[in-house]
């Protein structure tokens, strides 16, 4: 008898078993405390004695179609807005707001992802889903009708609808729709920006979103055996961890303001810049303290971060996604500002990156499914990402098409190969009762990565560009450069000496943002060496591992 079989037999003898709906048996997890016991009793799921009632046939098809539409709604917007950002600078003449345009969505998404998870747990899933779609559409409507840059930024923070599904049989098709939508986003955004107006990048959400609401109302019916976790309204509010959410969001806003002002509209030693940086640090410290005091009600339960498998993958996710967001948002700036390409041409030239990102994700899914190994592919992914970013870093003002498409192929495939592995690892090695919270933590890491690194990249981009201009062309008005949009660069600075100086300064700024992404990729290599080398448990061994505490190496 193998060691695994022996352990399985011991577990069957040591724990009472309960029948599952597929005829197999598994043992319940023993709660670590009275509070955890109460929490385990309040999990949305099958009601005792009730037969599962899952959607099938046409009803399932309509439900999945609704989910696919919402996926298209969210995924398209990422690529559309990234491509449209240079066009938005034409409208508002606020290059220093680029960091906000990109990070506003991720800022609120990162702070609210765990809170949405608890909303789905304690409230009616159907109406929570509708509320998230409605918020998304309201944000798009306000942004499309907005008169200024500040209002666009404010309404952008509602663009991320937090629509998530976890049914394993349908994840593959859902991911396929997400990838296709992400690939089409830059082309659609480029077409709108070039042929009509960038505002159509926002208006497009309405004809997509209204059918989603109608389909959800008509066809999304939760199975009879699945009910919201029973809890009083007071307990639900406590579970949302509003203090933690507020502190995290406030810290991100302070950091964003500090990096937007510093070196651009205000000097670095200005009182407001220093104050917001200090506030950011203090708020982060207080947030960690609040999460520790909240215990099981925390938006980030600190006990879930203790296993090395969890915290290493969370950091890997946070760091490696930095490169993803920098490339998505600054490659269009390179194409449109420096090469003078139209938005639609820029979108088409971004397709190799997104297409090979999709290919890498599919390859990753296949090989992980076959081998059940995780860490080796994260290491290979990080190494190839670092090489790809090194090629991006060496781009020049006059680089050829082959020169800027090659790095996209390498980096896109590398990123896709490892991008979803951290989520798979954390979900695969979590107890069933912890999967939802662990997933929320990983989604939070992904989104906060965008919030942090997009504003950091924008600060570095603007500061390095302005410093270079002061050195190479001190006669050029830096404020004028900041307030000039992408399509206006070639005409506003048409002088024989001015245009090369401005483009050269832009190139320095873009290169330094790529340097940040390259450093992040290199750090991901180091982190991948710390991640435990373990195989993803299969269906049978997973039940045993859920019952036996694992000692991390």
Automatic annotation (TrEMBL):
- Protein name from the UniProt record: Putative MFS transporter
Indicate how the chain sits in the lipid bilayer.
Answer: Multi-pass membrane protein
Against InterPro entries, the record matches this protein to: MFS, MFS_trans_sf
Q: Where is the composition biased (Polar residues)?
A: 1-24
Q: What is the lineage of its organism?
A: Eukaryota, Fungi, Dikarya, Ascomycota, Pezizomycotina
Q: Which residues form a coiled coil?
A: none
Location in the cell: Membrane
**Record's Gene Ontology CC terms?**
plasma membrane
Q: Which residues cross the membrane?
A: 60-86, 98-116, 128-148, 169-191, 197-220, 240-261, 273-293, 314-338, 350-369, 376-395, 407-429, 441-461, 514-533
